[in-house]
């Protein structure tokens, strides 16, 4: 066993679970895992305050797997998640960690899929049930005993579940579970509504919160880029085109990711290497020396492997995977800006990790500005600049050394010096795209397909009531209030219908209406705070698509 897995080994988890964790490539437990795993293993109820990106899924999945009995073919643990997307993610995580536990099965229960196979999987003895509350209640209506053997309950992203209106469903589910069960609640925020649930349904819960001390970050310019997880490598390659770096360190979460990204970079001609906990000490020193003296320009590392790394040449840090907590973010970006030099730190943020970004901003007391992917023009300009920089030192004495040869070649070939210079450039640039059209063609990612905020017109995904689409809340502009209607895509509503109705009947100017978000079973509209009550009264009887609009002020918690 390598030293890095010592962290996980110390929990005394079932060896099959530990083996799966090691195979996944995790090097050490994150802070939330460090604190939660022993508490949950010991059977206590717990309230964990943590958001996505902290490693919270493994924080409950590992101890729960440890506690179940694979020989018993009946539901033993129930995980509730606000959306189908999260339920599937959690179920997949459980499957990964249970890979070496024969006989353990996991079922994901969510709306939009037929109920029969889900119920069958539960009755066939799946020990772990990961469900969205709405669909689970549908199952309970058919078979109220279906959860009677569950002795571990986890509420994941409890605040999101309440925001999506699952309160009543949760109460139904609590009633269907044995009172002796263990209950673990994870939530990014702890508003009164969540504390009330904890009060009623948890027994003497232990609290776990990641302490976030204020950190100072100096001389480092920080930025973030929103990107989907599966587009990170393309995004990194695009960013590298335009970032003027000397040496660069990229942080990822797993050993495998260090290898994958380093080889993708090498394939594009970068001098890159991986640094992870599996790499022997002498090899690790070689990598760091190479980064110091310029034989390498990019190192892709895990947090553990990069500990103590001090290379003054590093001008940039790319946080390709989100750090677990703000402290580790500050640590990571401290690898640049060494010895009073300026540094630049870029953070890739997937849509689900936006909250973590806010926490980082709060703790560091600094705004991490958003950047967009460079467009084709920016890439072209950067490539030409690099070419200019590499050729300009060669021009000075080239004519005296190679001028005569040029004359001879142009005469022999029968071409102009311009034609010959162009041919040499083509050879020297080795097929690199150096026109806008060529760059546009080669780029898998265009700047505006990075995930933005919610787009009102996108109503393509239509889950049923069991898994209302969850998105990160979008900050409200000043002077605006968010209002909600129970009409959504399933009622045949599109953003333009809502806009039309509010404009016509509310007598507002177009600019007065902000973002409109249409979800499956509800919609949100941003309206002027000023005069809101009057406006809502005015719209009292408004109908859209034949149904009453019933617009109400919407509170986030
Ligand atoms: P979560 O906060 O549960 O959504 O986890 C975020 C990501 O971190 C997931 O991709 C996990 O696979 C990964 N992860 C969780 N724990 C660890 C760990 N100890 N080491 C490396 N990656 C981890």
Structural class: alpha/beta
Named at the architecture level, the CATH assignment of the largest domain is 3-Layer(aba) Sandwich
Radius of gyration from the alpha-carbon trace, in angstroms? 28 Å
The CATH homologous superfamily of the largest domain is called: P-loop containing nucleotide triphosphate hydrolases
> Globular, elongated, flat, extended or rod-shaped: what is the shape?
globular
Quaternary: single chain
Strand content: 15-25%
Number of domains: 3
Q: In the CATH scheme, what's the topology name of the largest domain?
A: Rossmann fold
Average pLDDT figure: 87
H/I helix tally? 20
Q: What fraction, in percent, of the residue positions are helical?
A: 40-55%
- Low-confidence stretches are 1-5, 453-473
Q: How many strands, which pairing sense, and closed or not: the largest β-sheet?
A: 7 strands, parallel
Layout of secondary structure:
Elements: H1 6-9, H2 15-24, H3 31-41, E1 46-49, H4 56-67, E2 77-80, H5 84-97, E3 106-109, H6 115-123, E4 128-131, H7 133-142, E5 152-155, H8 158-163, H9 167-176, E6 182-187, H10 192-201, E7 206-209, E8 220-226, H11 232-242, E9 247-251, H12 255-267, E10 272-275, H13 281-293, E11 298-301, E12 314-319, H14 326-333, E13 343-349, H15 354-364, E14 369-370, H16 376-413, H17 417-428, H18 436-442, E15 480-485, H19 495-506, E16 516-518, E17 523-528, H20 532-538, E18 543-544, E19 547-548, E20 552-553
Parallel strand pairs: 1-6, 1-7, 2-4, 2-5, 3-4, 5-6, 8-13, 8-14, 9-11, 9-12, 10-11, 12-13
Antiparallel strand pairs: 15-17, 15-20, 16-17, 18-19
Helix pairs in contact: 3-4, 4-5, 7-9, 14-15, 16-18
Bound molecules: adenosine monophosphate.
Residues 26, 29-30, 33, 52-58, 253-254 line the site of adenosine monophosphate (AMP).
